[in-house]
Write a structure and sequence with these properties.
By secondary structure, the chain is mostly helical. The protein has 13 helices and no strands. It folds into two domains: about 1-140, Tetratricopeptide repeat domain (Serine Threonine Protein Phosphatase 5, Tetratricopeptide repeat); about 140-254, no CATH class.
């Protein structure tokens, strides 16, 4: 993930002299750009929640965690910590947090399923990833559609199943190949808000999932081959279309 740069001019919120609450630790985590310190503060937020809500609070609130005002702060901390752990290559810990959050809130108002999909793909947990896709059959986000196509390519190679999944993904967001090709500079921070089917979603997907495509041998070249004719039809400038197609074939080569 490309993290936002720290703003030296940000107005820092005052804290009690000795932080104790979940909110205290979240505020402190937001005020630093040191990854290890962020994770330490978020872990302390979870410890504070255990003291405030009780050691068995997750069992008590399972299935309704998001509905309870008192649990939302710690769920925010868990989600942020899962993201930090994912980008620190601590996949087992990130996966555990994502699974716990989905038990607390099966409707997934936080969008944890997107981080979980990336973690499962990277960890090679294909069976669980396919179950996750099946759990949200109407999901239209690029994080699911393009990652499903990538999964099928890893499993089958350039098959009819993987090609169909990629074409469906392209129909849902035609901008993703542009930003995966890296011919357009990505911003330092994720777009806010992130839409569905537009360039903000494509930017976010490229920022968060491009390494999965880069690390899957032949995936970007396959994307280029499968989508070449469609890119030429949807991109008005033939030269730009060819640049994208060619860049996908070789952008990650040394």
């Amino acid at each position: 993930m490309t993290k936002g740069q720290n703003d030296d001019n940000v107005i820092k919120m005052p804290l009690r002299s000795s932080p104790k609450s979940v909110e205290d630790f979240i505020v402190l985590a937001e005020q630093t750009d040191d990854d290890e310190e962020i994770m330490d503060l978020l872990e302390k937020a979870l410890e504070a929640a255990n003291q405030d809500l009780g050691q068995n609070w997750e069992s008590k609130y399972q299935g309704r965690g998001w509905e309870a005002v008192e649990t939302r702060p710690v769920m925010h901390a868990m989600a942020q910590l899962a993201t930090e752990l994912r980008w620190d290559d601590q996949l087992d810990e990130a996966l555990s947090l994502c699974r716990r959050l989905l038990k607390l809130n099966p409707s997934d108002d936080q969008g944890i399923r997107y981080d979980l999909a990336g973690c499962l793909y990277e960890a090679g947990q294909d069976d669980e990833l396919e179950k996750l896709f099946a759990q949200y059959p109407d999901e239209a986000a690029a994080a699911f559609k393009y990652t499903r196509a990538l999964l099928y390519f890893r499993q089958d190679g350039a098959s009819s199943r993987s090609a169909q999944a990629l074409i469906e993904a392209f129909k849902s967001n035609i901008h993703v190949p542009v930003f995966l090709s890296d011919i357009v500079d990505l911003p330092q921070e994720l777009p806010d808000p992130i839409g569905i089917g537009d360039d903000s979603e494509a930017v976010a997907y490229a920022m968060e999932y491009c390494y999965l495509w880069a690390d899957t041998e032949g995936a970007l070249e396959w994307m280029s081959d499968e989508l070449a004719s469609k890119l030429r039809k949807t991109i008005a400038d033939p030269e730009i279309a060819n640049d994208i197609i060619n860049a996908l074939k070789g952008i990650y080569e040394d």
